Amino acid sequence: MKSLVQDYIDGVYRDLTGERSGSVADYIPELAVVDPDSFAICLATSDGYVYEAGDSRKKFAIQSISKPFTYALALADRGLAAVATKVDVEPSGEPFNEISLDPVTERPRNPMINAGAITSASLVAGATVAERFERIRRFYSRFAGRELTLNESMFESEDRTGNRNRAIGYLLREYGILEEDPQTTLGVYFRQCSIEVDCRDLSLMAATLADSGVHPVSGDRVLDAGLNERVLSVMTTCGMYNAAGDWVTEVGLPAKSGVGGGILAVLPGQLGLAVFSPRLDEHGNSVRGVRSCRRISKDLELHFMHVSRAARSAVRASYDVIDRPSRRRRSPAEHDLLLRVGQRARIYELHGDLLFAGAESVVRKLTLDADELDVIVLDIRGVDETAAVTRTMMRTVRDWLRADGVEAVIVDPQSTVLELDPDPAKRLRHFGDLNEAVGYAEDVLLARHAGADAQARAIPIRDHPLLSGLPPEQLEAIVTRLVPHTYDAGDSVVRSGDPTQGLFLITAGPVEVSVELAGTRHHLSMFTAGTTFGVAYAVAGREYDVDATAQGEVAAMVLPAPAIAELTATAPDLMLTLMSRLVTGAFDHLDWVTRALVSPS
Amino acid sequence: MKSLVQDYIDGVYRDLTGERSGSVADYIPELAVVDPDSFAICLATSDGYVYEAGDSRKKFAIQSISKPFTYALALADRGLAAVATKVDVEPSGEPFNEISLDPVTERPRNPMINAGAITSASLVAGATVAERFERIRRFYSRFAGRELTLNESMFESEDRTGNRNRAIGYLLREYGILEEDPQTTLGVYFRQCSIEVDCRDLSLMAATLADSGVHPVSGDRVLDAGLNERVLSVMTTCGMYNAAGDWVTEVGLPAKSGVGGGILAVLPGQLGLAVFSPRLDEHGNSVRGVRSCRRISKDLELHFMHVSRAARSAVRASYDVIDRPSRRRRSPAEHDLLLRVGQRARIYELHGDLLFAGAESVVRKLTLDADELDVIVLDIRGVDETAAVTRTMMRTVRDWLRADGVEAVIVDPQSTVLELDPDPAKRLRHFGDLNEAVGYAEDVLLARHAGADAQARAIPIRDHPLLSGLPPEQLEAIVTRLVPHTYDAGDSVVRSGDPTQGLFLITAGPVEVSVELAGTRHHLSMFTAGTTFGVAYAVAGREYDVDATAQGEVAAMVLPAPAIAELTATAPDLMLTLMSRLVTGAFDHLDWVTRALVSPS
């Protein structure tokens, strides 16, 4: 099938090939030799896929697009504070090659004009020009994801004609901004400008900036996330020379252009865009580059101030365990108790980004509700993003809740979205499945509220729903054939692969039934006092294909398979009554489970 | 319980009250009369909740914070293009009250310096000063969500001392930027600067800008979303006078300050922040205001370039209907067929923001997979945001898929997240529930692949699993008592509230069973040829509490309730066999449904 985005990029490319205005930079002889009508557009996604149109593998000099990267390396080598004493971050409103410093601060206005960029080059670590340039070349290469190389003749051309930059260098030395011979710094700077890239490289360099400094293909952490943020901020206000304001309003992507004809633009968290076309406008930006970016940003709604609607509350839904009970089997007494106190266990379904604003809405709701609650179930399966501030906030609220006797648990199959504490002892209980978490919440309510009537959890065999109300002689016929079994917590009741033992009438529970699928154990259901377990296996004489385990002190009366056969032959009326009760119960339970599926989960 | 965010804001307030540097603006006498140590911080959320600390209800003059709002009104009144001919959007790098225009464009550099703001005031519609000012006052009031008023003595003070602004006005008139008597424009401008607000108002005005121009409490659409985006862009580069670059790198929120001591800052899509404290720094920004914003942005990670990790693929998971079958009852033949062709129906679980980058990842995956598919189920319940470009992209892919014979359906209970077409005839089929969509996808596969063996959907009564293999005399005893029923598509089979009709042995299906809960109809299950329906009702003699409807040409053989009673009395062995088969089938089905719950849904 065709590719939608490729078609789109091809369309933009086709529409703009006719654009021939502007002219190629010629203040460096080597720049003037390029084909003025070269044109390429590349869009790199956050998983490293690159859409390419035109001359996307044609090499050209990176020129000023090097500036944010060398600034980044200077920040990494020297730290934010040290770099800030040498170069400001204010938009200049002046041409990029102005031979002047800010009259008040006596520093270059920002690292995107030549004075600031030369200063950045002087701050990169390395004892010699060669060593420093090699660190720069390697650093750029990691952004691109391949080894970039120097164009020697471009460098020679730069070096031969770079008098304006030398003037800037000596001015910087005069004011003590450069702390070395300007010829040394310019040796590095001219080389960095002469590194060759293609449009595809630029799009991946942009995607790395978009990915908080991690290369989308290699996964290489090229730049610290905080420094990456700083570089993007400076590109936002100063990246497009003195057309920055217009660029921000019309395109709205942090960007950098170079006189080689390249433009690199970043949609943070999302994608990298690059265009190469050597004809420049009066600001020194590629004409087709600016037009392509403007068109693509508008069509694809990439403007960084574009918010299609306000963030919704991070709490998508909230309900209690009466609205949404677990699928555990409960005795009638437990069921009644849960109906009375079930509003004290609430499930909060969270979704979207849990950055500050989302976390604030969750925390506000939880602290409002907490006084009325024993248990909080946070279902965070729909959460996309969290931040450090989220974890700090949630940790504080967890401690408040604990102090108030409210237990919070988390539903999160990956157990990674919202790890609240490095200390395992302090962590919230995690569940892989909402039903298990709700069952646990119900158990907490039952434990807290059942109080003295805990004996409600055990029943005499004659009150078991399968037998209650039978005529005395039928009841005796059954009861005399029942074999008592007891189990301690953790004991196996039945094992997958074993033959059927008979019909289990549970008189004290609970028994958990689970199954192992593809190496993972899944909870299926919980059998408590008053339920009957193993019916289908006993009636059909089948091997178990599930495991049942006692979850506490369990008592069961078992009608063994031979007794079933005997009663079927000698007392078919009795067996028919039992089967009718079982079939009604099974279909009722089936109906109940099926209805549970249409309630929120 | 305490409030976490309130505690935090109170803490910032407390920490910064000791800060006494800077001095109150005194170039307008009325400004100098405020208490220099007033201090308030307010944070407004996107649902309109406001956290307030300090003198949050103390009134002060809005001053320059009026500039983005009047600029917004001028844009709304005249349109982007007309306003662009009068005022640029470039950062100026000069003091806000500079009496100069851009030497090249001969226009004010941007609407946040006085020259640009006075120009904006001249562009607001209205025949007289009073009428124009009243429109401005009402416009600001809608942003604040309450009626704002003019401080008359502030206005008189402005008017008396505003010679510098008059100089700017006459300069603008000289260059033809103002098209009216500058005294008229300044009559409006001085009044707009003298509107009184408090810190809480500013935070809600900021929250309205954050909410794409919709007031978070009233829901009033105050400003078009596109113009709102433009205003935020200009605030980003020009809002904080000539400290804009430093503000963008350190705080990273579009903002505007005023000499009255206010600062308003916006986190798009998330929240509005406001600080009031009259002592100003050398740029004219509130000292405590800048320090508060810097601290809050850092602590709460609000910087607009802050991305905690790269956008993940919008496709969270993808599986076929073999991995995740529907809970519809299928005949063995149907089941076998689905095992053979089930990989031709895939479910794609989407999540997060489906803006361009997310939509691109979905479209790339769908077009890659489509050749191997008959049906695509898009489960978009986890999608938070979509954009116009998303809908365009998805519409195109839908048309491509249709042309290739692939049917796409959508799971979206709200039916609003991704409405692809204004034309209902072209819309994709929507389902409120994943199980229903998967069942439909299976039906499409069965219809396409069952081919000539469509008769697999109907069975002779003697092959019905409940009866097959019975001894001839038992089989006859049943079959002679069965009553044939047939239904056309849409016919009611049983109705909630009706008495039981007996046991339905379905020989041609399907019959859909559903239930109405709280006004909404929910699908429970589907009965096809070979299944038995109505067991629990027939055995227990209960009224129906569900509805069953024929979904095609349905044939059933019904064992009426009196015949059940008769056979129970005369042939208990036979009934016991039937009940054993039913109970085994019910528990098998219960087991199957329960297991379905542990598979992805």
UniProtKB/TrEMBL annotation, chains A, B:
Pfam families: cNMP_binding, Glutaminase
Binding of substrate, residues: 64, 114, 158, 165, 189, 241, 259
Keywords: Acetylation, Hydrolase
Enzyme class at the top of the EC tree: hydrolase
Domain spans labelled STAS: 347-420
Keyword Transmembrane among UniProt keywords: no
Keyword Hydrolase: yes
Any one Gene Ontology BP term: glutamate biosynthetic process
Enzyme Commission identifier(s): 3.5.1.2
Domain Cyclic nucleotide-binding: 466-534
GO MF terms held by the record: glutaminase activity
Catalysed transformations (reactions): L-glutamine + H2O = L-glutamate + NH4(+)
SUPFAM superfamilies reported for this sequence: beta-lactamase/transpeptidase-like, cAMP-binding domain-like, SpoIIaa-like
The family this protein is said to belong to: Belongs to the glutaminase family.
PANTHER family per UniProt: GLUTAMINASE (PTHR12544)
Subunit structure: Homotetramer.
Name the record gives this protein: Glutaminase
